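idk why but the lab printer keeps eating my pages so im just putting this in chat instead. protein + adenosine-5'-diphosphate:
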Amino acid sequence: MLIIENLSAEIDGKQILNGLTLTVEAGEIHAIMGPNGAGKSTLAYVLGGRPGYEVTGGSVTFNGKDLLDMDPHERAAAGMFLGFQYPVEIPGVSNVQFLREALNSQRKARGEEPLSGGEFLKLAKEKAGLLKLDMDMLKRNVNVGFSGGEKKRNEMVQMGILDPQFAVLDETDSGLDIDALRVVGEGINTIMRDPAKGVLLITHYQRLLDVVQPDKVSILAKGRIVETGGPELAHRLEEEGYDAVMKEDA
Ligand code: ADP
Ligand code: MG
Ligand code: MG
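predcted complex ->
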């Protein structure tokens, strides 16, 4: 579904991704772990098409199409969702307005009818309930005044409503207490655990992977994938740390 080959990218003239190669099949939840500064968020931004990130080599193919050739909104319409390490606040725009607009623009790009206000609210209620998010929160401005945990839950509601084919989730677990972590993890399972979908789950911690069990685990270090294994690799990293595991396996 997602084939990343020899990808290199820089920001402000500084090379961050260095020949990164990674494949995610349909039905796969692939965890990416790695030291701080390794380039994990950069990978997420490059996949999302964030301005300022310059691809200097390699390719990314999504469902057979050249992802890097698409604008960010085309990537979203093609089924790619990006969850941020630090979700942005949008004063003056309610969650409901924002999500209905986003969903309907994606539907339009796919040649589908837009949802009416009533249809959209029904869908939003269903997804908010699934993630134990108060409907009142959906009426508030996007992320404004939300706690860290509420922002992450809100992001899961966005994902539930947009129902993407592929999600790149960057440290969705950061700043979550144990209960919120379970809710968010189960949200990821409910929305994305599907033979036709794929997930790149960027995380530092085994505790999220206890809830969202990955099919594969890769280590990203110094801008490239240095090792791929099964769930046991995450357990070893948790116990021994990156340096020890990478040295042992080198
Ligand atoms: P990770 O998410 O793995 O912790 P990042 O992708 O956020 O790592 O960052 C990778 C490297 O890129 C870090 O060394 C970081 O300091 C650097 N970096 C990020 N943004 C910029 C920027 N605007 N200019 C220069 N270096 C940057
Ligand atoms: Mg980091
Ligand atoms: Mg990061």
